[in-house]
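Protocol step 4 of 6.
Sequence for Replication-associated protein ORF2/G2P domain-containing protein (Candidatus Marsarchaeota G1 archaeon OSP_D) entered exactly as in the expression construct, tag removed. Do not edit the line below.
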Amino acid sequence: MRNYAPQLVKAYELANSISNPIFDPSILPRILEEERRLAYSYDNEKSNQAIILYNEETNKILKLPYYMRFKAEYVKAVKHKIWGEIYPQVARYHNFLFASLDGSTARYYSQADAHRKVQKHWNSLLTRVRRRYPWVKIIKVVEWQENGLGYHIHVLFCGVRFIPIKWIRETWDKLEPNPHSVDLDNKFKTFEDPKRALGYLMKYVTKTLRQGDEIPMSLVINWALGLRTLAFSRLFSRFSSSKTNSNEKSRGVWVFLGIMPWDLAVSSSDVEILGYFGYG
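Step 5 output, structure tokens:
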């Protein structure tokens, strides 16, 4: 992981290290404590940084807040993605099915191993779903448990009210044969109303996002492994919601100059910022 922050490099190494309590009950608590410490250290370091871009054609400087998943702006972006871009497409449906798929914590030797094995079986199930229900759209959330190895997948199927649980188990039992590892929910009032159905999924999304000063363990592990908070099926059309009336921002090529303290960036002129990076 060249050119990555040292906190992220270390967290990635920890997420790939042996942590199953079967080997040593004291290993996993120590790893979780260190991962959390690294996450807060990374957050403190990056929260007051600015990304500086320079446009040689217009001779202008662009100052952008350092954007990362621990910032409040990330939470707002996720919610905007859900309600601003995804919901208008979900609103076309009136049949929904919610599924929670659980994986055993005893089967993995590390967090990275847990992700690989659960994702392998999810991909297999997803392929079968696409073949049998090609019109269905899917929204998936990954939730790690506080114990650091428990791994849940929460899925909203849009366009279908019923999928046989035995059919799902044909795939999932290969990972986790526990009879409670697959839970299907299609409450009548909730899952014929698009807004309520998406809102039901959002309570799991919220659990994986930062709330105030607290960084949830699920968010820490997703950060350490570089995993997305949300995943959407390819049937959802993709479009950019970002709009700008500024022609100046679209002119020429913006070159990355570097990163500097945000407070210093907003109080400095373009000439002073160029001087900070050794230009001019």
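Step 6, annotate. The two ends are 33 Å apart (CA to CA).
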